[in-house]
């Protein structure tokens, strides 16, 4: 009953209902999980889709400044923008990269924006599911754009890129030597690399850095499904709000191309299959994490160690136990 009305309020785009629903999907309580599942099933029927934009960059590169300026530009065009964060290494400042209330102050007051701090103290596996479910809730609430922010800590970029339609990498102006510092894998994920802080004294360096990355991008593996000029590097200034409209144009061009050529839907379908596979794996691994399973692992481990049972036979017994003997 309660989730029904919550669902309706989300479909009406009510931000408070959306916030409550995200709290529900973030909860580990079994009754909350059940309610969340029911709610998500109800909302999936609405068939609404946002443009999901992943955004990564190391601390200090200007992510929150960029999201605020870029988000304000989009809401200024009448679009509704949601911001979510994925932060698996949330030890800093008590947990949440968006927890500081002074971040994105203007955007957080905008009635067409919704900003959700990342839940603290979570594992990457749990973060992935919660973020996917939070995205689904934002989509149902009618947000046109969902920005998913992550700090550059390696694995989290992969998680975010697997749930995004577009992936942005934000970089700071730097000398040529520092180009090496960006891992190839992260560069390969990016659809658009934005060199931020292209203003004042940093402008010339930013332009040079952009040229360096444009060169580096040309050397990367081609993506046959995208137009020739992608992935591309551009300069922006989040503070001076320069280059943001051009960046948005490029994102729209790429999105439209992918839609027109069937790649957009194919990508979402592949992502859904990927997450299904991940969920099954996680669920199976979770079954190993019970007192009974751990005790059995210990016991079988001892038997294997003494040669009493073969590793294969022990594994089969373990699996039979985990899957209720149906294997
Ligand atoms: P985050 O840690 O990636 O979220 O970075 P912040 O958005 O908090 O920005 C870090 C610092 O860089 C702050 O002092 C910002 O004022 C500054 N900054 C962000 N964007 C720009 C920009 O476009 N130009 C300049 N000059 N500074 C910027």
In a few lines, what is going on in this structure?
The chain folds into 2 domains: 1-47, Up-down Bundle (Single alpha-helices involved in coiled-coils or other helix-helix interfaces), CATH 1.20.5; 48-261, 3-Layer(aba) Sandwich (Rossmann fold).
Low-confidence regions:
90-99
Calculate Rg over CA atoms.
22 Å
How would you spell out the order of helices and strands? Answer: HHHEHEHEHEHEHEHEHHHH
- The fraction of residues in strands falls at 5-15%
Mean pLDDT score, rounded?
Answer: 88
Present as ligands are: guanosine-5'-diphosphate
Cross-sheet strand order for the largest sheet: 3-2-4-1-5-6-7
CATH architecture descriptor of the largest domain: 3-Layer(aba) Sandwich
Oligomer: single chain
Shape: globular
Main beta sheet:
7 strands, parallel
The DSSP helix count reads 13
CATH class of the largest domain: Alpha Beta
Give the total of domains: 2
How many extended strands?
7
Task: Give the CATH topology of the largest domain.
Answer: Rossmann fold
The SS-based structural class is alpha/beta
Could you give me the name of the CATH homologous superfamily of the largest domain?
P-loop containing nucleotide triphosphate hydrolases
């Amino acid at each position: 009953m309660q989730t029904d009305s919550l669902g309706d309020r989300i479909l009406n785009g009510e931000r408070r209902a959306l916030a409550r629903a995200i709290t529900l999907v973030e909860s580990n309580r079994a009754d909350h999980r059940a309610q969340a599942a029911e709610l998500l099933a109800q909302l999936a029927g609405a068939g609404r889709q946002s443009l999901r934009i992943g955004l990564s960059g190391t601390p200090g590169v200007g992510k929150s400044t960029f999201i605020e300026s870029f988000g304000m530009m989009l809401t200024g065009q009448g679009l509704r923008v949601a911001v979510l964060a994925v932060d698996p290494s949330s030890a800093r400042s008590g947990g949440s990269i968006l927890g500081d209330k002074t971040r994105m102050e203007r955007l957080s007051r905008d009635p067409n924006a919704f900003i959700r701090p990342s839940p603290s103290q979570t594992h990457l596996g749990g973060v992935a599911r919660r973020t996917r479910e939070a995205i689904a809730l934002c989509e149902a609430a009618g947000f046109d754009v969902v920005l998913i922010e992550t700090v550059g800590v390696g694995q989290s970029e992969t998680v975010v890129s697997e749930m995004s339609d577009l992936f942005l990498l934000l970089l700071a102006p730097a000398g040529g030597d520092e180009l090496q510092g960006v891992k190839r894998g992260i560069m390969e994920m990016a659809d658009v690399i934005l060199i931020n802080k292209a203003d004042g004294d940093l402008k010339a360096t930013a332009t040079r850095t952009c040229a360096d990355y444009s060169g580096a991008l040309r050397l990367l593996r081609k993506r046959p499904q995208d137009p020739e000029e992608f992935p591309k590097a551009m300069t922006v200034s989040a503070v001076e709000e320069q280059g943001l409209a051009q960046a948005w144009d490029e994102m729209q061009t790429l999105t439209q191309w992918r839609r027109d050529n069937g790649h957009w839907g194919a990508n979402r379908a592949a992502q859904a299959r990927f997450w299904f596979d991940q969920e099954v794996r996680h669920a199976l691994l979770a079954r190993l994490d019970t007192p009974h399973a751990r005790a059995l692992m210990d016991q079988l481990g001892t038997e294997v160690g003494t040669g009493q049972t073969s590793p294969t036979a022990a594994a089969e017994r373990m699996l039979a136990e985990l899957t209720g003997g149906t294997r």
